[in-house]
């Protein structure tokens, strides 16, 4: 099989420290109002300084490292206004603009090795998902982002989560009577990879907000992420209520935890200026009540705004606040998950976990080994069970003691005679329209995407775009052929059709949490105890059985 990326994509270990941060995301122009008109971005070339030393024309040369080092270097940007024009054209038309660049690279035998101990958060204002459910489901089936945040989902309660994706755990808040007088628009969604242990966070006294908060348990810390959509022209109350969310999450977090507030705040006249002391952006002209009631309380909580990617009007509507700006970098994706709205460029937050485990090894259950009964030697298993004198083995003991003894012996025999196999999570989400060619291309896409996240060079970006475009084309074609087969074979094979229909509302994901009587179980043992409490509460002995006892 060909290499998933060309050899020339290897980047010197010090390139991460040679990138500079772009200016703050503000400029003069008209603000964005909704509904927005359709249109394309205005192409505007970015002004860059050629790197005469290394030949990377799109990477401004800032400084040369004084010594060989494998430590992560954060290079602060200059306090100057953003380049006029459209920042999105810089990303999607050849000049990649990487904001807050901090690359973590380990070196083995002199060869740069990317460090995967980071958590990726993809954000986009999607301007409605109801007409994009099929497109979204196909994209998320091959997506490697750990967390996905969407605003303006426009979803209703009659659209279930499995119609959107069966590969993520979905938390969402749709527009309702409590959040808005308008029935159309709004809504937020947070999707988390099933390999991450997550739970919803209920924010009190914030029912009027279109907001979702999720807690993700990591090995040495927790990540609190809150997604919000505040409509244009909203009153001071919504911004004050969202500021309460920041304090609420801060009170329930430890000093080592990471807090992220992200969403569409619709403050088009608020300008942001980079401050090196905090490694982030501060508002430079907050004057209205909405602006001050958002910026001041959030800043007092120690959260820093880190997004600087302006829209086509050089305005910043989508903001990202974090409690850990030093371990967070923001950049724009090579290709968006869904069509881009001109007023809301998507971006990615990469949070460095500074841990020896990868983000896909955070949830212990994902790496457990399963019993492989297909390769079991049933003859030896039968001999082992037959050799035990159960009557003598369980004699003269209480019922409870016999039960524990029986299961201990049963598990001991099974562990000795049944081989183990590593659980393959990808097989759970395998789609019926996937072909061998598509799976092969998907593997190449994932390798190219990992390479780009670790070493974000122009060559890696272009190679990733090429593979992803080919994959999307083949994926869409395979799915359409599968749907045509369903329609043509409906009379001959109706069960195939009904499997597809049921699959739209079913999922193979194991429930993250079990809730019973205001008690939430999140570990492996607690759900069993809650089920025991439930069965005990509804179990009742019959009169005949009581009399027999």
Explain what the structure shows.
With 549 residues, the chain is α+β, with helices and mostly antiparallel strands. It folds into three domains: 7-361, 4-Layer Sandwich (Deoxyribonuclease I, Chain A), CATH 3.60.10; 369-422, no CATH class; 514-548. 29% of the residues lie in helices and 18% in strands. The protein has 14 helices and 21 strands. The strands form six sheets. Strands 1-16-17-4-5-7-6 form a seven-stranded mixed beta sheet, with no helix packed on it. Strands 8-9-10-11-15-14 form a six-stranded mixed beta sheet, covered by helices on one side. Helix 4 packs parallel to helix 5 and helix 10 packs antiparallel against helix 11 (458-488). The protein starts with 14 loop residues before the first helix and ends with a helix.
Task: Name a few traits of the molecule.
549 residues, alpha+beta, Deoxyribonuclease I, Chain A, 3 domains, 7-stranded mixed β-sheet, 14 helices, 21 strands
């Amino acid at each position: 099989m060909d290499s998933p990326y060309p050899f020339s994509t290897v980047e010197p270990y010090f390139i991460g420290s040679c990138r500079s941060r772009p200016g703050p995301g503000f400029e003069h122009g008209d603000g964005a109002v909704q509904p927005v008109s359709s249109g394309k971005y205005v192409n505007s070339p970015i002004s860059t300084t050629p790197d005469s030393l290394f030949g990377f024309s799109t990477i401004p040369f800032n400084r040369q490292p004084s010594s060989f080092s494998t430590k992560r270097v954060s290079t602060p940007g200059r306090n100057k206004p953003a380049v006029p024009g459209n920042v999105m054209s810089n990303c999607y038309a050849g000049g990649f603009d990487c904001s807050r660049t901090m690359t973590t690279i380990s070196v083995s035998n002199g060869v740069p090795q990317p460090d995967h101990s980071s958590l990726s958060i993809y954000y986009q204002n999607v301007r409605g998902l109801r007409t994009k459910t099929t497109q979204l489901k196909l994209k998320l089936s091959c997506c490697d982002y750990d967390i996905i945040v969407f605003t303006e989902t426009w979803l209703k309660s009659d659209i279930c989560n499995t119609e959107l994706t069966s590969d993520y755990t979905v938390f969402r808040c749709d527009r309702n009577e409590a959040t808005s007088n308008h029935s159309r628009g709004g809504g937020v969604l947070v999707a988390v990879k099933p390999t991450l242990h997550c739970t919803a966070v209920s924010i009190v006294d914030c029912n009027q907000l279109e907001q979702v908060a999720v807690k993700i348990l990591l090995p040495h810390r927790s990540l609190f992420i809150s997604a919000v959509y505040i409509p244009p022209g909203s009153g001071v109350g919504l911004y004050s209520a969202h500021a309460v969310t920041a304090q609420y999450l801060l009170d329930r977090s430890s000093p080592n935890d990471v807090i992220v507030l992200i969403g569409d705040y619709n403050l088009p006249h608020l300008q942001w200026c980079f401050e090196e002391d905090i490694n982030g952006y501060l508002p430079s002209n907050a004057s209205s009540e909405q602006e001050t009631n958002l910026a001041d309380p959030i800043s007092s909580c120690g959260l820093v705004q880190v997004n600087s990617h302006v829209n086509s009007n050089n305005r910043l509507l989508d903001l990202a606040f974090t409690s850990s700006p030093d371990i967070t970098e923001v950049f724009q994706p090579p290709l968006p998950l869904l069509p881009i709205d001109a007023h809301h460029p998507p971006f990615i937050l990469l949070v460095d976990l500074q841990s020896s485990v990868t983000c896909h090894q955070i949830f212990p259950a994902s790496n457990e080994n399963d019993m492989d009964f297909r390769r079991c030697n049933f003859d030896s298993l039968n001999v082992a069970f037959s050799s035990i004198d159960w009557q003598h083995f369980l004699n003269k003991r209480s019922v409870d003691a016999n039960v524990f003894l029986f299961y201990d012996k049963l598990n001991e025999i099974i562990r000795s005679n049944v081989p183990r196999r590593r659980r393959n999570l990808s097989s759970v989400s395998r789609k019926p329209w996937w072909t061998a060619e598509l799976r092969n291309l998907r593997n190449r896409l994932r390798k190219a995407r990992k390479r780009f996240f670790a070493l974000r060079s122009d060559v890696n970006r272009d190679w990733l775009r090429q593979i992803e475009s080919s994959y999307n084309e083949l994926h869409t074609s395979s799915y359409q052929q599968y749907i045509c087969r369903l329609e043509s074979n409906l009379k001959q094979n109706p069960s195939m059709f009904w499997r597809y229909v049921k699959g739209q509302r079913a999922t193979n994901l194991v429930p993250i949490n079990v809730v019973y009587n205001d008690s939430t179980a999140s570990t492996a043992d607690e759900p069993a105890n809650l089920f025991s409490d439930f069965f005990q509460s509804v179990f009742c002995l019959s009169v005949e059985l009581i009399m027999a006892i």
